[in-house]
Specification:
It contains 21 helices and 2 strands. The protein is mostly helical and 415 residues long. Helix 8 crosses helix 14. It holds the Pfam family MPAB_Lcp_cat.
Length: 415
């Protein structure tokens, strides 16, 4: 059986087909779920957001565990599977940068996808996008610490979420490359005006959408043991929602933990920015939260279907930890070992102890020294340095880190 949903947006008609399934909140009574939401970071997220968590709307969201971006998948089939890579990439880039109005021979799937992405939703507020981008820049290196040591590392504790990474051999690619790609995407969608049509952030969103489709088609074709019933569809819409809540709610909570303050306008802006990125990525709007309360309530339902870290999670976590040792940006071994120690310290500070133990994060001495000192410095720095100066410096420092990573990796968007 299927549930057919019609979504009308101006002149664009989008058909969303979802399977009716029997997926249940199977881990709602498990210790890892209860501990997270009653005494771990989940409890802190509830306090931070004012969320009223429950499973009463579970059945409204659970079908998205089996829903994917079929339009993006068809674009990959029609363009990347019918041409050589260089020709296909050139064609997509032309649509991204020039639009589709002048292209008469465009495949129908591409016309449908770009009609959606070129249709600016009525709810979009460019002022809020600007505020969200400014918060990302203003938090400077705390933004990058949050992405790495809370958002990415914390995500590895959700075993089913990580299966596409394992199957597409992310470990073989290496953490340096994987981190570089994540940083490249994040930086380019969080700058001023980045998400305007045909601009750099818009381009990154479209290409990332097609990377997801390409990976999903690869998994469907080459991995016969994919457990759809338990894992959902590869890179499904519900998992995508959780990932982008990581970039908004979890990211914001991490900045808060590190002693950063932010205005209500900046907070609203951050959620608005990632809502629009999600829209460009083809995530159904119903799954894109407007604020931290809604995000925490959505996240609660999703976590009820996720088991705790497994052996693949531990491999991913340790690959990320050891990235500091493998990365040639720092010249000397003692510098790399020290950087690894600082990231381990931040991981213990930002994540639950139980999560760190499941991911087998090493114990280190004086692990709170660096993050607690950083928190104290942040509170002083935020009071004595002007907001505009912090934004400019944050942008400069983040761009320097990105440039360093791109200099050591072959970071083409498709690979």
């Amino acid at each position: 059986m299927t549930n057919l949903t019609f979504s009308f947006r101006r002149k664009t008609c989008i058909f969303i087909v979802m399977k009716t399934t029997n997926v249940q909140p199977r881990y709602k009574d498990s210790p890892h779920f209860k501990d997270f939401w009653t005494k771990g970071n989940g409890k802190l997220l509830i306090d931070f957001s004012g969320a009223e968590v429950s499973l009463r709307d579970f059945e409204k969201f659970s079908p998205y565990f089996y829903h994917v971006d079929e339009t993006g998948d068809q674009v990959v089939k029609d363009i990347y599977f019918t041409k050589n890579f260089r020709e296909a990439s050139k064609e997509i880039e032309e649509y991204i940068r020039k639009g589709i109005s002048e292209n008469k021979n465009i495949p129908e799937s591409a016309r449908q996808m770009f009609s959606q992405t070129e249709t600016v939703p009525e709810w979009l507020d460019y002022g809020l996008l600007k505020s969200g981008a400014e918060l990302c820049m203003r938090a400077n290196l705390d933004s990058l610490i949050s992405l790495r040591d809370y958002c990415l590392m914390g995500g590895y504790d959700f075993a089913y979420l990580n299966k596409p990474l394992i199957i597409t051999e992310a470990l073989k690619k290496g953490a340096v490359k994987r981190l570089s790609e994540t940083l490249d995407f994040w930086v380019n969608v969080t700058r001023y005006n980045a998400l305007e049509l045909h601009h750099k952030g818009y381009e990154f969103a479209i290409k990332t959408r097609l990377i997801h489709s390409y990976a999903r088609l690869f998994i469907r074709k080459h991995y016969q043991n994919w457990d759809t019933e338990n894992w959902g569809e590869p890179i499904n819409s519900w998992d995508m929602m959780a990932t982008y809540i990581g970039f908004s709610l979890v990211f914001l909570h991490s900045l808060h933990k590190l002693g950063n303050t932010f205005s209500l306008e900046e907070e609203k802006g951050l959620f608005h920015l990632w809502k629009y990125v999600g829209y460009l990525l083809g995530i159904p709007e119903k799954l894109l939260p407007d604020n931290k309360k809604q995000a925490a309530e959505f996240f609660y339902m999703w976590t009820s279907i996720q088991p705790p870290a497994d052996k693949d999670s531990v491999l991913l976590a340790h690959s990320l930890l050891n990235e500091s040792l493998e990365n040639p940006i720092l010249k000397y071994k003692f510098q790399r070992k020290n950087l690894r120690y600082l990231h381990i310290s931040c991981t213990w500070f930002l994540l639950d102890d139980e999560v760190c133990k499941r991911l087998q994060i090493p114990e280190v001495s004086n692990r709170n020294a660096f993050p607690v000192t950083k928190k104290m410095i942040n509170k002083i720095y935020n009071k004595i340095v002007s907001r505009d100066l912090r934004i400019r410096k944050g942008n400069k420092d983040q761009m320097k880190v990105l440039t360093d990573y791109l200099s050591i990796t072959d970071n083409s968007v498709f690979h």
